[in-house]
Design goal:
The chain is an alpha/beta fold. 31% of the residues lie in helices and 28% in strands. The chain folds into 2 domains: 7-133, Transcription Regulator spoIIAA, CATH 3.30.750.80; 161-349, 3-Layer(aba) Sandwich (Rossmann fold). The longest helix is centred in the last third of the chain and has 15 residues, at 270-284. Strands 12-11-10-13-16-20-17 form a 7-stranded mixed β-sheet, with helices on both faces. The chain has a 5-stranded mixed β-sheet with strand order 3-4-5-6-7, with helices on one face. Strand 5 (78-83), helix 5 (91-100) and strand 6 (106-111) form a beta-alpha-beta unit. It has 12 helices and 20 strands. Helix 7 (165-173) packs parallel to helix 8, helix 10 (236-246) runs parallel beside helix 11 (270-284) and helix 11 crosses helix 12.
């Protein structure tokens, strides 16, 4: 029987619990460079199905691939190494150099520590200079029928989240002839999916004008720009309130906020605000409309997330026809206490 994704398979074939016995990431990068390259090549081969569809994917997925607290995302000929340890030591550099030996041109190292490092300069968490070559400023990668621009040296985020790939495919397959609202749209990758899927109109809302500019570039890159695809720079809460007063209605609403962020009037947090956002979304859904709700808040488990959405629907008088927890892409198999990092739920109302 195949072991659970969040288990670790030892060299003798035994399967043990990740939380109890998985060695530290440092122990995995000790030894010869050749041995480390063998492990990376094996993980690369396991991504064969994913690689056939996209140039952007998770190559190393934490303990699911035997590298606890480390993740490597590949974007074409370049890679981003994310380190979740507070004190990575030489581990990140050693692994980045090994990744270079596997055929990539450059590796960007991003630190995502658990401790509060707000006093550190942003550049120390995401240095612009990679190990190896720098990626071109206009780097774009293909994902199925889409092409997305990515900025690997631009802070902790690249402009494209590989864990949302299957959700983008779902939006692409279910948008024909429909009106689509994309909240916290960032670089508008969901909007591109909806537009190429034949959406009648799209509205993308994000507080960051810079992110929306990149979103416009993504639409133009895919031949999907036009007056039917509106990009709006606004606080999501404020815009939703105005949309309700106008009695706007959408067939599909995508709700993908950050776990924590700033607003025009304070801050946003999943614990405090997700339910209120979902209520706004349910009020805007047309009959038989769909809400795609996602969160990468690690302290919110799947059951709790579904309960938040169910409560929001009840409070707005909407009847749920279907509430379905969506699977995560196969290259994002790592689990924390049995839970995926990103939770996605599709809600259809009557």
């Amino acid at each position: 029987m195949r072991p659970p994704f969040f288990a670790w398979t030892a060299r003798d074939g035994s399967v043990t619990s990740e939380r109890d016995t998985v060695p530290s990431s440092e122990s995995f990068v000790r030894g010869s460079a050749d041995a480390l390259k063998v492990r990376l090549d094996a993980a690369f081969e396991r991504r064969g199905t994913v690689r056939a569809y996209t140039e952007a994917y998770r190559w190393i997925d934490d303990a699911a691939d035997g590298f606890p607290e480390l993740a490597v995302d590949r974007y074409g000929d370049f890679a981003v190494l994310s380190v979740r340890s507070d004190d990575p030591g030489d581990t990140a550099t050693t692994l980045a150099e090994a990744v270079l030996r596997c055929g990539v041109r450059g590796v960007y190292v991003k630190r995502r520590p658990r401790s509060d490092l707000r006093r550190e300069k942003h550049g120390e968490l995401a240095p612009q200079k990679p190990i190896g070559e720098s990626s071109p400023p206009d780097l774009a990668v293909h994902e199925g029928p889409f092409s997305f621009g990515v900025a690997l040296a631009d802070g902790l985020s690249t402009g494209l989240f590989t864990d949302q790939r299957d959700n983008r495919a779902l939006v692409h397959a279910s948008s024909r002839g429909r009106s689509v609202l994309n909240l916290f749209s960032y670089t508008c990758t969901f909007t591109v999916a909806a537009a190429l899927g034949g959406a009648r109109e799209t509205v993308s809302v994000d507080l960051s004008k810079r992110a929306l500019a990149r979103g416009r570039e993504n639409l133009e890159r895919n031949g999907a720009s036009g007056p039917q695809h509106r990009l709006i720079g606004a606080d999501a809460f404020d815009w939703l309130a105005r949309a309700e007063r106008r009695a706007d209605r959408f067939d599909v609403v995508i709700l993908d906020p950050p776990s924590f962020g700033t607003r025009d009037k304070g801050t946003f947090s999943v614990d405090r605000d997700y339910g209120r956002l979902a209520e706004h979304c349910f009020r805007l859904l047309a009959p038989a409309g769909r809400l795609l709700a996602t969160t990468n808040h690690r302290k919110t488990n799947s059951d709790a997330f579904r309960k938040v959405l169910s409560a929001a629907a009840r409070s707005t008088g909407r009847t749920i026809a279907e509430l379905r927890l969506l699977p995560t892409p196969e290259d994002h198999a790592h689990r924390i206490d049995g839970e995926p990092a990103t939770k996605s739920v599709l809600v259809t109302v009557v």
